[in-house]
Amino acid sequence: MKDYEKLSREHFDGMADNYAATDGLYYTELPKLSCDEIMRRCEGIKIGSLLDVGCGSGYLLSLLAAERPSARLCGLDISPKMLAHAAKKLQGAAGVTLKEGGAGELPYADGEFDAVTCVMSFHHYPYPARAVTEAFRVLKRGGVYILSDVDKRGMGEPGEEEFAFYTADDAARLLADAGFKVEEKFRLTPKSFYVSGRKP
Ligand SMILES: C[S@@+](CC[C@H](N)C(=O)[O-])C[C@H]1O[C@@H](n2cnc3c(N)ncnc32)[C@H](O)[C@@H]1O
Hints:
36% helix; binds S-adenosylmethionine; alpha/beta; Rossmann fold; seven-stranded mixed sheet; single chain
């Protein structure tokens, strides 16, 4: 099999400067729309700790850090250059830590987080079921997983560093198989979906 992690690292390292300068907008508006939707839906909900898997240049973490200065916020990404931009953007935000790593083996303990988010990153993972199982593992009981990604129906063929595209139904099935109780499932735009599930 192709080494998707290596391909993604090279791809996103290569575009990190441009991506970070526009919060991804120069590339596509989809990540920003998903992050803004997460912020709207999480408004007023208590979240003490959150892990953003595939955090990129840190757009979602920066919104969360501004709104929830006392929360413990963690970001993980396979691309060191995207993480370097995230670190710059989040400079001075207490309670934020970033790590380099892959979504298939989260470097966190069982039951650490109230929430795990994953925005526009999942379609790069060569281990989709494992990525969901890992999110389940690091969540506390009652914790929520939010997965927003490109919708297969609005996309063409996956690019070189993209493993597969999914619909909201496909993603919901992956969440249910991992043990999540699916709570929300909808098409956010013609090219993206939003799915959330709770760990019982
Ligand atoms: C389109 S960007 C989205 C970044 C961010 N979530 C946002 O909303 O702007 C996809 C991110 O997923 C990361 N990524 C790709 N494959 C990954 C993997 N296997 N594990 C962790 N991160 C990965 C990339 O490095 C990149 O930063």
